[in-house]
Amino acid sequence: MPAEEFVAGWISGALGLVLGHPFDTVKVRLQTQTTYRGIVDCMVKTYRHESLLGFFKGMSFPIASIAVVNSVLFGVYSNALLVLTATSHQERRAQPPSYTHVFVAGCTGGFLQAYCLAPFDLIKVRLQNQTEPRAKQPGSPPPRYRGPVHCAASIFQAEGTRGLFRGAWALTLRDTPTLGIYFVTYEWLCRQFTPDGQNPSSGTVLVAGGFAGITSWVAATPLDVIKSRMQMAGLKQRAYGGLLDCMVSSARQEGLGVFFRGLIINSARAFPVNAVTFLSYEYLLLSWG
Ligand SMILES: CN(C)C(=N)NCCC[C@H](N)C(=O)O
Questions:
Q1: What PANTHER family is this protein classified in (predicted)?
Q2: Cβ neighbours, 10 Å, residue 156
Q3: What is the C-alpha separation between 76 and 113, in angstroms, rounded?
Q4: What are the tens digits of pLDDT across the range 142-156?
Q5: Which of 175, 214, 225, 278 has most ligand 1 atoms within 8 Å of CB, for mutation?
């Protein structure tokens, strides 16, 4: 099993993650809290109340976890294509796989990464939703979680391993098809702008990666909202009876627009994050031969 894809996936994912985390914090807050009037209001309030550091809450854990998550995604995707088409990453420009194979390999990568991602994502969302300033201010209550390890330990103590996988179902449903869409969009755009048999230029990779990110996140947003709400359930809002109950009661209370909360910020974040992720992934694999 070629291992370079796993390492390239890890490094490229980490670069994309740092770039996109401030957008991600605003998105999670808009999806799970009703105190903000929109993106700008959320950004202004976060900055005033918590300074620039507020945008980077909950980032240390994803940085550590991206080693697992993105390397599983890209490593499984590439190795699934190897099984399906008997071609290595280097051979795939000369013998491009069919879009069906790309979709199936993407879904497989998405499905497996979702299970690795679930506990890390839960902790990230819980920490991002703590709006208390970092520096202790007189009269303000201390945040519920002191950091990622404390957050993980508290959830584990209260609810056991199952608690750490809260929202995992919604996450799997979100990521399995949308990662198929992600890789198909990337491949399709690369092929449109690249002569047969050649490697795509850096510009093509940036644009194709960016649009792959946007397309997949547009498709993922409805389940992303549900996933974030289920992860927060039981803390501030009421616990839901399951995924369907969360969907129905969110739609009843807030209208169908609720499924598109965070869509704009998700898309704005997705372009630079995935442009950088794919560019560094392709570059690393090319330079390792
Ligand atoms: C629609 N979904 C779930 C994705 N496209 N997932 C791939 C993640 C890529 C990058 N780390 C990001 O966070 O955008």
A1: MITOCHONDRIAL BASIC AMINO ACIDS TRANSPORTER-RELATED, SOLUTE CARRIER FAMILY 25 MEMBER 45
A2: 14
A3: 9
A4: 788 888 889 999 999
A5: 175
